[in-house]
Design goal:
alpha+beta, 9-stranded mixed beta sheet, 5-stranded antiparallel beta sheet, binds zinc ion, Aminopeptidase, elongated, Alpha-Beta Plaits
Amino acid sequence: MAINEKRLAEVFVQLCETDSPSFKEAEVADLIKNIFSELYPDAFYEDDSASTTGSDSGNLIFRFNGSNPGAEPVFFNAHMDTVTPGMGVKVKRQDRIFSSVGDTVLGGDDKSGIAILIEAMRAIKEDNLTHGPVEFVFTTCEENGLLGAKAFDHKSLRAKMGFALDMDVTDQIITKAPAANRFIAEFKGLSAHAGLNPEQGINSIQLAAKAMADLKIGRLDAESTSNIGVIHGGAATNIVPELTRVEGEVRSHSEEKLARYTQTIEEAFHQAVDTWTDPTGHATGKPSLKFSVSREYPAMKLHNNSAVIKRVEKAASNLGRNITHIATGGGSDANIFNGYGLETTIIGTGMQKVHTTEEYIDLADMVRTTELIKSILTTA
Ligand SMILES: [Zn+2]
């Protein structure tokens, strides 16, 4: 029997209409567990990542042994959480196109991935098709720092290669994604009364502004970007602000450039603080800077001859399709899995305009992707 479009659509709508903002994935996790428990009662376990992430659910893992235990195990990944505004989603269907009614995201990012994996397993079971060992990893908090994937115990997986369903265009795969650093710069000046004795203060907001003014941000080169995304500073208009906190990020496909660009920002900030001169000679101290860098996620780079790419290409060619390889500027769970040494590519599901209230998806694209997943599973 072919893929059941009606059933795929119903599960997709049900998933979208079940709230699952980051940190509150338990309800949708229960729904997924219930669906699979009819088909494969022993396949499920939940990890203990909730205690690390702070979510009300752990990551869900389903393990299917298959009828060809000698085949190379693979895993599939999708994330359960959605971005805001994502509460109370009502799905609107016009012919084959699904969207929200307009006041929320649809949540096809990434519930299309989950619905597709459910339908692929149902179709395979109905047809009694032979497949090898496979694991599904449904993560929490992907949209919030990839926290679920970061807290996942990857050693519990049998598979060494995987496919994340978390991208727009069908029959495309992502083979390259950047690494990212996050930085926090705390400019410390001196507080003083803004009207009585401003000359005793050091304005940390102005200092931070000077430090940032000549920085090159945005697109740095073909494979690198940077951004300053958050600034907090000051307490009231009548106080010279003592503290200003600047948060930003740098991304690059090259680790060497990532390190260099991050260092350039740090040096520019330090220089602004070090070269500060007291305009009146009455300040009672000097400014200082605390600059900290943390790694958000590692880069991913898959070679054309890697086993995971060969597997998806063979599965596609069995369907008479070609797979296009692309690079992305975004980071996702797949970066984390690749960082664990698990070669993981990202497959498009058809989701469009994600992270906006105009998000939509065409059922035909979900069917197309389900065929591909089914083919990956049954192509040894
Ligand atoms: Zn996503």
